[in-house]
Amino acid sequence: MEMIKASWVSIFAFAAILLVIIEPAAEAVTCSPMQLSPCASAITSSSQPSALCCAKLKEQKPCLCGYMRNRSLRRFVSSPNARKVSNRCKLPIPRC
């Protein structure tokens, strides 16, 4: 009976380890500034961001600091309009 309990404990421990390893990989985001294209009009003008823009912005949140460090992208993602879009989407601007 003790051997069976030990086997089940081992199986559950192994399953827990697999979940910890696999779960973050499933949530990995591919950083691509093109994913923010639905936000282009809101960032370059004063128009309201669309629901798709907000969804993409939230999806790309882990990538925003990298975009801010990129000279070519910085002027778009750090602009006053980009900050307004971020606020309207209720997404705090990351501190990088």
From TrEMBL:
Name the InterPro entries on file. Bifun_inhib/LTP/seed_sf, Bifunc_inhib/LTP/seed_store, nsLTP2
Gene3D superfamilies assigned to the protein according to its UniProt record, in alphabetical order:
Plant lipid-transfer and hydrophobic proteins
CDD domains, from UniProt?
nsLTP2
Query: Per its UniProt entry, which superkingdom is the organism in?
Result: Eukaryota
Q: Which residues form the signal peptide?
A: 1-28
Q: Which UniProt keywords apply?
A: Lipid-binding, Signal, Transport
Q: Which SMART domains match?
A: AAI
Q: Which residues form the Bifunctional inhibitor/plant lipid transfer protein/seed storage helical domain?
A: 31-96
Instruction: Specify the protein name.
Output: Bifunctional inhibitor/plant lipid transfer protein/seed storage helical domain-containing protein
The scientific name of the source species is Brassica cretica
Q: What phylogenetic lineage does the species belong to?
A: Eukaryota, Viridiplantae, Streptophyta, Embryophyta, Tracheophyta
